[in-house]
Structures are given as structure tokens and as C-alpha cells.
Write a structure and sequence with these properties.
The structure holds two protein chains of two kinds.
Chain A: E1 2-8, H1 17-28, H2 33-53, E2 56-63, E3 67-75, H3 82-85, H4 95-99, H5 107-114, E4 117-123, E5 127-135
Antiparallel strand pairs in A: 1-2, 2-3, 3-5, 4-5
Chain B: E1 2-3, E2 11-14, E3 17-20, H1 22-28, E4 32-33, E5 38-39, E6 46-49, H2 53-56, E7 64-68, H3 73-81, E8 86-89, H4 97-105, E9 109-112, H5 117-126, E10 130-131
Parallel strand pairs in B: 6-7, 6-10, 7-8, 8-9
Antiparallel strand pairs in B: 1-5, 2-3, 4-9
The chains are: A alpha+beta, B alpha/beta.
Bound molecules: adenosine-5'-diphosphate (ADP) and magnesium ion (MG).
Adenosine-5'-diphosphate (ADP) binds near residues 54, 76 and 78 of chain A.
């Protein structure tokens, strides 16, 4: 099963729409609510990152019996140092993003906590790709 | 079953866990229930107070109430992703129509309270609602 969404930078009204749709699908598929929560929390932080830091992006959710793979691709400024960005508290978020309740530099660390696998690649001045993999069966995190 | 609650005080004792239902929440916080349809068997054990949604998204608990001063659409989105079924908005901040629409769709109970986040937290704590940290 595959689902595709588009994300618009700066659009804090629609932010979270894709995460919400993915949650509904996982609920319909009777995925364990705890696994579902981990997936959608990681996805939501990643979706908000596109809205907060990039210009536009796409989200592809692929679901099979073993795992869920989420790929978020954006066009944006990119991340100069992923290592630095992964550190708790590091943020370049604007005042507007902070007014929305984000921008404390906790998103990437929390994505890493909730995902079984998190892969981030980025080209400065081009964009960022975030891949979140969650195993549905025994390989899953506790 | 879905129903509309009236603001009367009622505390439920459940295996030594004192939990609050929506109607007692409303009475204790002098709150205004904004969503009209909520599940009747809902029981709350924990609460977390924050204006930082990234902080809320780190929670790993069920039956939790979010107390916040942040009234925007992402407050409701955050509750939806975190499986939080009740959000109390402090200091008379107003729930917007799009927040209400999303809360109803996501089965989230929304309460507006005139009290500060600090006062709401204190009242719920006194009434047996547990902190998460
Ligand atoms: N998709 C992205 N495009 C560009 N920069 C990003 C992206 N995602 C994250 N970043 C960078 O990494 C930092 C840390 O991200 P995160 O941990 O989610 O914290 P926050 O979003 O609260 O700033 C951001 O402030 C930003 O500088
Ligand atoms: Mg972020």
C-alpha cells in the first residue's frame, strides 16, 4: 500500500494533515496503538520540520506486512550539519514557528527515539530527505 | 455511547486510582466544554502542562489530560498524534472554529477555563490526577 502527500512550507494550518491521514490508515489496519503512536509522532515532527524549515515537500508512506516506510523529501535550505541538528536544543526556528509550539530543537531527537531506523540526507540549498522505518513485528523497539 | 455532560462534581474511585471525568473537570476548572460529544466511559489518570508541543510529543502515557496556554490548530494536532483525549486551555484563550472542527473529528474533548495553567494544574493535582514526571 502506498500513500502520497504534499506539504507546503509555512502552512501551519495544514501541517499535520498527512500525519493524521497515516494515523487513520494504521488504525484501520489494526496496527498496535503504541506502534501507531510512535510512527505518527515521528512523522508529525518531520512534517512540521518541512513546514517550519523548508519551502515545499512530499511524503510517501509505504506499508507492507513487515514494516512502514515513510520518506519525506523537501526543497529547502538543507541542513549544513546533521550531527549538530540532531542535538537536543539545537534550533534555527523562527519566532513564528515557536509561537506554534515548536522550535525547541526537540523534533529530530524525538524522531530518532520513536523510529526503528532514521536516515537523514541533506544538500545545502537544495533540500532534505528523511526516511523513517518502523517494523511492525518482533523487530520493533520495546 | 456519546453524550453531553453537565457540570456537576463527581469523582470516580477505581482501584485506588482517583480519576476525574469530564463533568468533574468542568466543575473544578469552572470550564466551558467546547466539544459537545465525548465518550462517556472516559477516565483520566495523568495530566501534563506545557505550551511546547514538541515536549508533549515526547509523552508515552495514556489517559492523559493536556493543560496548555497554547490555543492553535497544532495544539489539537499534537493531542491527536499523542493519543491525548482531553485538552484544557487556560486563561480564557478562545478555541477557534477550525480547532473545534478538528477536535470533534479526532474525538478530543476541549475545555476552555478562565483559570491559569498553574491553577488548573494545582486543582487537578489536589483531586488525584497524577503528574507524568
Ligand atoms: N527539513 C528541514 N530542512 C531544513 N532544516 C531542517 C529540516 N529539519 C530540521 N532542520 C534543521 O534542524 C534543526 C533541528 O530540528 P528539530 O530537532 O526538529 O528542532 P526544531 O524544528 O524545533 O528547530 C532545525 O532548527 C533546522 O535548523
Ligand atoms: Mg522540528
Amino acid at each position: 500500500m502506498e500513500f502520497n502527500f504534499t506539504v507546503t512550507g509555512g502552512d501551519f494550518i495544514s501541517a499535520g494533515h498527512a500525519s493524521s491521514e497515516v494515523k487513520k490508515v494504521l488504525q484501520k489496519l489494526n496496527v498496535d496503538p503504541k506502534i501507531t503512536r510512535r510512527i505518527v509522532v515521528a512523522l508529525y515532527e518531520a512534517e512540521v520540520n518541512i513546514v517550519a524549515h523548508a519551502y515545499s515537500g512530499t511524503i510517501k508512506a509505504s506499508i507492507d506486512t513487515e514494516k512502514i516506510t515513510l520518506v519525506l523529501d523537501d526543497e529547502g535550505p538543507g541542513i549544513p550539519s546533521i550531527e549538530q541538528a540532531m542535538q537536543e536544543g539545537f534550533s534555527t526556528a523562527s519566532e513564528k514557528v515557536r509561537e506554534m509550539g515548536f522550535g525547541a530543537g526537540m523534533g529530530l531527537p524525538n524522531m530518532s527515539k520513536n523510529a526503528d531506523e532514521l536516515n537523514i540526507t541533506s544538500d545545502v540549498n537544495k533540500g532534505t530527505r528523511v526516511e523513517i522505518i518502523t517494523w511492525l513485528n518482533n523487530k520493533a523497539k520495546a | 455511547m456519546l453524550t453531553t455532560f453537565a457540570a456537576t462534581i463527581s469523582l470516580k474511585t477505581n482501584l485506588n486510582i482517583v480519576s476525574m471525568e469530564i463533568k468533574s473537570l468542568l466543575a473544578h476548572t469552572e470550564g466551558n466544554l467546547i466539544t459537545t460529544q465525548i465518550s462517556e466511559d472516559i477516565v483520566f489518570e495523568n495530566a501534563f502542562a506545557s505550551d511546547l508541543m514538541s515536549d508533549v510529543l515526547t509523552l508515552d502515557a495514556s489517559n492523559t489530560i493536556l493543560i496548555t496556554g497554547l490555543a492553535n490548530l497544532q495544539t489539537i494536532r499534537t493531542a491527536e498524534m499523542s493519543d491525548i483525549e482531553c485538552v484544557i486551555i487556560g486563561r480564557n484563550k478562545k478555541v477557534t472554529p477550525d480547532m473545534l472542527e478538528l477536535a470533534i473529528k479526532s474525538n478530543i474533548c476541549l475545555i476552555e477555563s478562565p483559570f491559569s495553567v498553574f491553577k488548573i494544574s494545582g486543582i487537578l493535582y489536589q483531586n488525584g490526577i497524577k503528574p507524568l514526571y
